[in-house]
Amino acid sequence: MEFRRLGRSGLKISEVSYGNWLTHGSQVEEDAARACVAAALDEGVTTFDTADVYAGTRAEEVLGRALKGQRREGLEIFTKVYWPTGPGQNDRGLSRKHIFESVHGSLKRLQTDYVDLYQAHRFDHETPLEETLRAFDDLVRQGKVLYVGVSEWRPEEIERALKIADEMGFDRIVSNQPQYNMLWRVIEPEVVPLCEREGIGQIVWSPIAQGVLTGKYLPGQEAPAGSRATDKEGRGADMIAGFMRDEVLRRVQELRPIAEELGLTMAQLAVAWVLQNPNVSSAIVGASRPEQVRDNVKAAGVKLDADVLKRIDDIVDPLVERDTDKIQSPATRP
């Protein structure tokens, strides 16, 4: 495993991190989830990403049990706050009340005294940004949170947060967690240049486009049984739907010869591709089976030369989404 600094902070994290969205507590049984975590640890992964909302808080519980007994100082545990975790009006958003209640719930479920990174899962248009950032800063000062970050924030929202933090003496955000892969590059025009200037690292999710970039989905054919595209209950099918067009699946199959020439699987090529971006601190991979973890982590340390990157671009460019306006948080709390 290779390691990178998280933005300009002193924290080092594994190039490939393990995330349990759409799997732990919902798509796979706990024994399988724990086997995946064990495989990640065996492969040198030290960074684990979750959120209070995943599987209705159950994902944090599963991860907490899976990591129990590990040396806490050797792990980086990340979680998030924003989406609803209960029926009340204050069981969501980034108010001081919800942030404090949410972090205490997360710490209990994760069975830890602190989280290494606490992230605003979306931007809250109903809460003053000063209130959110002060609450985050208080948690840092209390030692319950070591670093703070955001997820899927627009460039102007990140800029506002940095300005307020500097004016009020708060800890700055050190990370952004966006969707990023060969097909979805909405952070490239504005978010990445801003973050490079300001010392913010990207912890990217969906580097294999919900599994589409593995090449297992074939144009004109039914999705394989048990795959994410068939997961209606856990929302996997909804999330992958935008990539499941035949024109996309045909282009993805054209990437296979490149992967084979490099001695990589399709998944390894996709994860390695996002890691070529120097602003990416880590690529989050999820899994329902340990062998998927072992396959994906082999992308760490892989270098793709300029010719390979151009060949990939030539294949996928007509389908790439780069519109920064696709980065959106709900106008009102969900």
TrEMBL record:
Keywords annotated in UniProt: NADP, Oxidoreductase
Lineage top rank: taxon: Bacteria
Q: Which residues form a coiled coil?
A: none
> Per its record, what are the GO molecular function terms?
oxidoreductase activity
Against InterPro entries, the record matches this protein to:
K_chnl_volt-dep_bsu_KCNAB-rel (IPR005399), NAD(P)_OxRdtase_dom_sf (IPR036812), NADP_OxRdtase_dom (IPR023210)
Question: What Pfam families does the database record attribute to this sequence?
Answer: Aldo_ket_red
- Cleaved signal peptide residues: none
Q: Cite a GO CC annotation.
A: cytosol
**Keyword Nucleus among UniProt keywords:** no
All copies of domain NADP-dependent oxidoreductase, residue ranges: 16-316
The similarity comment for this entry is: Belongs to the shaker potassium channel beta subunit family.
Write down what this protein is called. Answer: Aldo/keto reductase
